TrEMBL record:
This is Uncharacterized protein. SUPFAM superfamilies: POZ domain (SSF54695), TRAF domain-like (SSF49599). Residues 1-19 have a biased composition (Polar residues). It comes from Miscanthus lutarioriparius. InterPro entries: BPM1-6, BTB/POZ_dom, MATH/TRAF_dom, SKP1/BTB/POZ_sf, TRAF-like. Residues 207-276 form the BTB domain. Pfam families: BTB, MATH_2. Pathway: Protein modification; protein ubiquitination. It comes from the Eukaryota.
Length: 309
């Protein structure tokens, strides 16, 4: 029962409530490899690299990478990088998880996602069940070796990131254990990070790139946009020299200024700007297209929800 209340025959009725929420712990693991291992002379077709064991959602996992393709379907994967996630423990019942793989080139302290937008599409995300120990799921043809090698200098490190969300059913957040923990803990005010980042956007302090959209200029911060959108990461860093040569200016010709302004607002604050009812539907339609273009999944879901109401 999600909520209960009771009343005695006299006096003010007592009230109580409980909540049931989805239990979905998440985390990721990075497997770093030398890009030279993608050369068939270094690691032959059918041989694999295995990550160290790591824990997400109370379960132990490993990443399996075949730098020059697996042999599950004969020689079909030759010339490809094959990537799998393996459950590395015995389980009493199947473990259901959402899995996402990405490959990144490391430069200094920044991870730059080096894929075209279609490679970053949601086909690289899947939900599946791991029935027993050594169950593995992934992609036999995740990406072509030559496409990966084009993005890095010889010998540069590559990072294979596996992000996992484990679906553990539901839990009662108002159980006695949770009540005791809540009573004993100090009050912590809600996060105001979105407010600070919103102020950073509006103040333009430290902006290192300017977007020109429909004749309007929008100063922004590369590091924020790279963190929020893998497509921005590609566009901003792969074209850094060109944009810097032009004074850090990036032109966007196929988007309305108010749509890009709303996109920036969401990137910094994780919220939509205030919109008047008559224009909300039209703006959400255009913003949905922009969210898909920049691979901002949460923004897409919010726009779809508003359009379905």
């Amino acid at each position: 029962m999600l909520a209960t209340s009771s009343a005695s025959g006299r006096g003010k009725p007592s009230r109580s409530s409980s909540a049931i929420v989805a239990d979905r712990p998440s985390g990721y693991h990075d497997l770093k490899i030398d890009s030279r291992l993608l050369d068939a002379m270094s690691v032959p077709h059918g041989e694999f690299l295995l990550s160290s064991a790591f824990t997400v959602g109370g379960h132990t996992w490993r990443i399996i990478c075949y730098p020059n393709g697996d042999r599950y379907d004969s020689d079909a994967a030759v010339g490809y990088v094959s990537i799998y996630l393996k459950l590395d423990e015995n389980v009493a019942k199947p473990v259901t998880a959402q899995v996402q793989f990405s490959v990144m080139a490391e430069k200094g302290a920044l991870f730059l996602v080096r894929w075209r937008k279609e490679v970053l599409s949601t086909k690289k995300i899947f939900v599946t069940s791991f029935a027993r120990q050594d169950s593995s799921h992934g992609y036999s043809k995740f990406a072509k070796n030559k496409d990966v090698l084009k993005t890095v200098r010889q010998g540069d490190p590559l990072t294979i990131r596996c992000h996992i969300i484990v679906f553990n059913g539901s839990r009662d957040v108002q159980s006695p254990k949770h009540k005791q923990a809540a009573a004993a803990s100090a009050h912590v005010s809600p996060s105001n990070l979105h407010t600070h980042l919103g102020d950073l956007l509006s103040s333009k302090r430290g902006a290192d790139v300017v977007f020109v959209v429909g004749g309007e200029a929008y100063p922004a911060h590369r590091c924020v946009l790279v963190a929020r959108s893998p497509v921005f990461a590609v566009e901003l860093f792969s074209s850094m020299r060109e944009s810097d040569a032009a004074g850090g200016v990036v032109h966007i010709d196929d988007m309305e200024p108010q749509v890009f302004q709303a996109l920036l607002h969401f990137a910094y604050t994780d919220t939509l700007p205030e919109m008047r009812k008559p224009e909300e539907g039209v703006l959400c339609q255009h913003l949905l297209v922009a969210a898909d273009r920049y691979d901002m999944e949460r923004l897409k879901l919010i726009c779809e929800d508003k359009l379905c109401r």
